[in-house]
Automatic annotation (TrEMBL):
InterPro entries cross-referenced by the UniProt entry: PurM-like_C_dom (IPR010918), PurM-like_C_sf (IPR036676), PurM-like_N (IPR016188), PurM-like_N_sf (IPR036921), ThiL-like (IPR006283)
Name listed for the protein in its UniProt record: Thiamine-monophosphate kinase
Keyword Nucleus: no
Species this protein is from: Pseudoalteromonas peptidolytica F12-50-A1
EC number: 2.7.4.16
Residues reported to bind Mg(2+) 5: D212
Domain (PurM-like C-terminal) ranges: 148-298
NCBIfam families, per the entry: thiL (TIGR01379)
Misc: Reaction mechanism of ThiL seems to utilize a direct, inline transfer of the gamma-phosphate of ATP to TMP rather than a phosphorylated enzyme intermediate.
Protein family membership: Belongs to the thiamine-monophosphate kinase family.
GO biological process, one term: thiamine diphosphate biosynthetic process
Binding site for ATP: G119, D120, R144, S211
Amino acid sequence: MKEFELINRYFKGRGIIRRDVELGIGDDCALVSVPTGHQLAVTTDTLVSGVHFFEDIPPRALGHRVIAVNLSDLAAMGAEPTWISLGLTLPTADMEWLEAFTEGMHEIAEYYNVQVIGGDTTQGPLTITVCAKGIVPNGKALKRSSARVGDWIYVTGSLGDAGLAIEARKQELMLDPLHYKAALDKFHYPAPRVAAGQVLRGLATSAIDISDGLLADLQHILKASLVGAKIHVDKVPMSNALRASLDEAARLRLALSFGDDYELLFTVNDNNKNAVETRLKQYGVEPVCIGQITAHNGEVQLVNKGQPYQLSGQGFEHFS
């Protein structure tokens, strides 16, 4: 199958058609309309086989995952996802693989009312680049730079499951099959907190999604806001699968530093604390308070059951 045959078969005419897309796949550029009173939010992620996903990942799961991780970035800004462009580099045009991959991709895009509006296909080592766009009302975007001393630190869900799946695979850990499947599903099919991000607009003082690990991503907020943090590691939410599979030290290492969870990490002041908890619960999200912002610029104090706690490893970083 040649390039344009591939595009016409698996991308053009598939998925939802949004009214704000004036021209989609098939021309040199796509044309879209940004609503009056809104800003355009744009994020780009590249996923490389063997770096961001196992080479034998089911193609349907990969299609879901490449969209989900980009929507998670938009969620962290409080943006409504709208359009996606896809750059796809393939070793071969395997029709069975492409059918499953695009099924997973279009499925999650349709769920979040996102239209695939263009991109590019080339031949080479399996690499996928997604550019996701969204809209956010003027001046309402969540940022990393507005956390203040005394703000409470929250996460939207359990951490460490993706790390458990990866570690089990790499180190050949013997896990209960049901626990391994639950962890692997979290890694393969992350659920971006899109609704939660929009709820947090005007309530949270800062936000970020957890892709590189809680402590690593927390540092981005601290550096941008010129503040520190105190984290109660015993408050960090973990799944039953993680708790049943590892001892405390091992599961804390995964929950605090591994990443790929795509939950939201956000801060909120005293005045909005109850409102955030109430409104998120209306969307099925049970936010968990894990600490508080301090005046110690860039410093993170870890506490476990009231005692100082030390952890080796601070999260994933390319070229480190």
